[in-house]
Amino acid sequence: MTLAMVSKIVFPETSVHGEIVIRKCNSVRIESSWELLTDTAVIVLPRNVKDFDKLNVKTIFKKGDPVEIYLGYDENLLLEFTGFISEVSADIPVKIKCDDYMYLLKKHSVNISMRSTKLGDLIKSIIPPGIEYDVADINIGTKRFPNTTAAKILEELQGNNIYSYFKGKKLIVGKIYSDDASEPVVFNFTKNVIDNALQYKNKEDVIIKIIANSTLPKGKKLKVEFGDDFGTEQNLSYYNITLEAELLKLAKADYEKFKVDGFEGHINVFGIPSVTHGMKAQILSYQYPDRKGLYFIKKVVKEFDDSPKYHQIIDLDKKAE
Fold first, then answer.
1. How far apart are CA 292 and CA 288, in angstroms?
2. What SUPFAM superfamilies is this protein classified in (predicted)?
3. CATH assignment of 105-173?
4. Per residue in 70-81, pLDDT tens?
5. In terms of Cα–Cα distance, which of 234, 278, 224 is closest to 256?
6. Domain limits of the chain?
7. pTM score > 0.70 for this model?
């Protein structure tokens, strides 16, 4: 069965122009991960677009203008990106770079000082009205952020392994996989995987060292290490663990979670089924049935172009079982 690739780029109405809908593009690339803080998209428009004069494109498309990207097959379009224009090239063909809703937080200035408090209280104080958020229940130490932006604060929190990202228009802080309850997407090497750069490792070959950090009230920290000498360091954050023995116990438990048989790397698949980071991927192989496994999806790059190609490059994270 042959499917026709389709796209729709929507630039909603602004004070400069009415709604512009472009149904043909040279290419779209969307990069998304909970590690990135900001999901990004790059749109390359064809040379001949009836809706605007390509010579005056910068007067039409401006930084901060909203954008929606729909991709799919046979008119079954899915909203794959929503955000704002961050840069417009002066070259031909026109290249438009976009950020997700983190764009608004990069523009939102804050000046704040807080005593030891909850993460949720900090987020509430720095996020502008109208943005929904879902925040982990975490105590944090005294924080002072003079003359900065909300996005810069979220970026600094990543240094303590508190990651932030947008799901559509909703900000998620301190939660990576815990609230993603969608059914796993099945990928079979002989059916719907184009190619892969996966390496299967036995647990004996996984060399890792856990760096466990506990954030205590008033900003104090407790740190222990456990694992293999010269292993890949995995920094993990815990909160309000006041005893070193208890923190070491947690580090040992997490060490065992990483020391499992499984794949590392990425797979290259078609545009459907559409996936996002945080979902689970069920990996199957008829050639190696013992290597099947359920993995969290860490990162997704979507590539759509007129070659024609509509692929998703999916980075696998730790096992989800």
1. 8
2. Phage tail proteins
3. 3.55.50
4. 999 998 999 999
5. 234
6. 5-100, 105-173, 207-256
7. yes
